[in-house]
Protein 1
Amino acid sequence: MKKRAIIFGVVIVIVASSCVDKFDLSGFKVENHLVVDGLITNDHGPYTVELYMSSGIGDNVDHPEYVTDAIVTIKNDLGESEILSEASDGIYRTAEDGLQGEIGRKYQLLIELPDGRSFQSPMDEMKAPGNIDDLFFEFKANSINGNDIALPQDAFWVYLNSSSDGSDDQHLFRWRWNGTYKIKTYPELHVVAVGNSFIPRPFPCSGYIVEEGNVLQKIRDCTCCECWKTEYGGSALISKNEFLEGGNFRRVPITKVPILRKIFEDGYYVQVEQMRISESAYNFWKLAEAYQASGGNIFQPNAVQIKGNISSTEGSDEVFGVFSVAGVTRKGVFLHRWNIPYGLAEGPIVTSPCYSVEVGATTTKPIFW
């Protein structure tokens, strides 16, 4: 069968130990192709594999066509294997007490579709992730959006220093980051207009009620006054020799955090994951990074052709994506409001529940806060 190359973009939207990355194939007129999106690490599972079909022009990429009823298996070099359960359409997961990723072991993904087609990844070794020796930041004025004074100009630039375990000289790493900030609101101060007056109407979750004379009375603790929002890096970040010194990486740029009042209410926590990945996964993310860097818009086609490490057992080229086998380690750092070399103006008082302020905000307090 004649091989076909596919041009597509990548959007990273999820960052967690056992979570996968999301590929966005919008804007490209391609035939439907299977997309495989999976990851196994030395973290405790469950591990996730997503199967869906590539999208053409005009398709809604927020609602992809997921592939259901497939048989998805992860196996290791000891002959141990686990068939993943379909947690929801196209989302396959190992059991909580299922197959565990271990440094030094090799892992492979096997897929059988309901129509009889089958696919696989190479048997890749999970290598030790090395160490993030230091995660630090520097304030830089007028360092982003320099051509638009209406947008934030100042930012903290976050860097890392890291080292490998010395087991090989390939230095194939990938980094992912996420940032978390606190949202504080005052739902007990909510009011409604009645004629020419404003009457207090606190939200029930505020813990306040209105007594006679429109007097606020606290009867319980607020359950919607404090939320936390986590945002995720959207770029492929892989190791480059330009930051390599004596086998260690120095001053690797991770992200820029704009100086915005809303994210520095109570500090901003940046967490970085360092993953030692296989050569096949590294080559995939290297091309993804180059694709993102060219032209600045991942939704516009260009000359980069990205091929993953999934192949058809029949030898066709009708599948793409990546199954990463990665040793992972993490490090975090707080960027505090007092690290900003000037004061931030106070913002408006928000009187709605905190979880309504930002999509994805949660009242669950992070363990690191």
Note: The mean pLDDT is 85.
Protein 2
Amino acid sequence: MFKVTPNPPDTDPADAKAFDEAADRALDYYLKPKPSKPTPDPSQLFTVINGVGTEALLANLSETLASANAMINDLAFDLDGSRRHVALGILQLIEMGAMLANRALDNVEAR
């Protein structure tokens, strides 16, 4: 059976432009993929993800300061002389930071 086909096939210039654009998009999708998320700075060891609420950040800060307080408190009573005074000074700074974090946490409206 013989099928009549034009040689070359009839093409509408408007359809050719749309076809070229679609082909470019398809090739760009596979050959030029966009990064799914930005790469972090390699010198930055820790990071806080975006979208974390203020209340959660303050609660974690308060817990971190409480842990630091317990560690330096234990260390300070094993030291003598000026080293003990330095450790107790650090302990006081941690306590002040914890008080500020707890006050900020009290001021945050619960959701």
Note: Residues 7 and 85 are 94 Å apart (CA to CA).
